[in-house]
Amino acid sequence: MPASLNDALLRILACPHDHTELRVESKALVCKRGHQFPFENGIPIFAENPRREPIPLNMGPCPHPDDRARAAARGEPIDPFVNDWIVNTNGNLYWRVRGRLPRCPIPDWPFDAGKGRVMVDIGCSWGRWSIAAARAGFVPVGTDVHVDALAAAARVSRQLGARADFICCDAEHLPFQSGSVDFVFSYSVLQHLDKSKVRRIFQEISRILQPGGVCLIQLPNAFGLLSIAQQLRRGFREAKSGTFEMRYWTHAEIRHALEQAGFSRIKIYADGFFSQNPQLTDLDLLSPAGRLLVRTSSAGRGAANAFPILTRVADSLWIEARTSPSHG
């Protein structure tokens, strides 16, 4: 068995086509009906069209090569993928540190302690939230279609001493047995997908969660203060299908989509204002203007906790939903 695939993970994995059990055979995972899924650098590949993009194609070469060379000479373990992709994964506030990260930006876990629960992180990229979850006591399994990002996630988690597994799969076809997972998480991912696809992903999340299982996701609010300005810039048109453009969700859309997928006890909280990715833990990485924005966002989040009506104009939302105790 590949070193990165442990017995506990194998027990909950399933064929994404027919949900049957898998076994390791000839350096691949095979289901009872003969579907085979290869390993690549120890990572199981379930996606039919895995993304292969070692350097971001939507921007120029990674700047500050001299800084990276000096960091390498000092033995600083900043993974090259993280250094190059930091803007794509963490947002525009991080432009100033692209290529010269002084540390790996791991956020604080925003929810209860894991207490050994299995968590699936959808769209994990290089693993920042999977690592945060591992530190909070979860048993995380990061998923993504981007195999280069997953390879980086495996490297970074080893460097930081965080126990996490990573698999390559499509979010619409999660390779887990029904009712096998305690917790599903996704941050700054689903907003870039067509809403019809997100609704199908909600159905998949509901399928793999145990009765009473928790789903915690982040989505942009259509009525957020910055969100309205961004939508105005594009004439309030819907995002073009198949593009990376932001999809903005109303509270009512979120609730309806989750209820249709079988979720209940849906709670919506403010994550941030004037930003989709405000992390107080990263103030040292940001410009003065970025630090001011994140502190303002944090103050707004605190105000929204005290006065929930303010959640209506937050730009970034946390959504917590649970499957019913009799689910499945």
Structural account:
The mean pLDDT is 93. This protein has 328 residues and is α/β, with parallel strands linked by helices. The strands form two sheets. It has a seven-stranded mixed β-sheet with strand order 7-6-5-8-9-11-10, sandwiched between helices. A four-stranded antiparallel β-sheet has the order 1-2-3-4, with helices on one face. The protein has helices spanning 7-12, 65-73, 80-90, 128-135, 147-159, 195-208, 225-233, 251-260, 288-306, and strands at 22-25, 28-31, 36-40, 43-44, 118-122, 139-144, 165-168, 181-186, 209-220, 263-272, 316-323. The chain has nine helices and eleven strands. The radius of gyration is 20 Å and the shape is globular. Among the domains are: 67-97, no CATH class; 170-323, Rossmann fold (3-Layer(aba) Sandwich), CATH 3.40.50.150. Helices cover 30% and strands 20% of the residues.
Question: How are the elements arranged and paired?
Answer:
Blueprint: H1 7-12, E1 22-25, E2 28-31, E3 36-40, E4 43-44, H2 65-73, H3 80-90, E5 118-122, H4 128-135, E6 139-144, H5 147-159, E7 165-168, E8 181-186, H6 195-208, E9 209-220, H7 225-233, H8 251-260, E10 263-272, H9 288-306, E11 316-323
Parallel strand pairs: 5-6, 5-8, 6-7, 8-9
Antiparallel strand pairs: 1-2, 2-3, 3-4, 9-11, 10-11
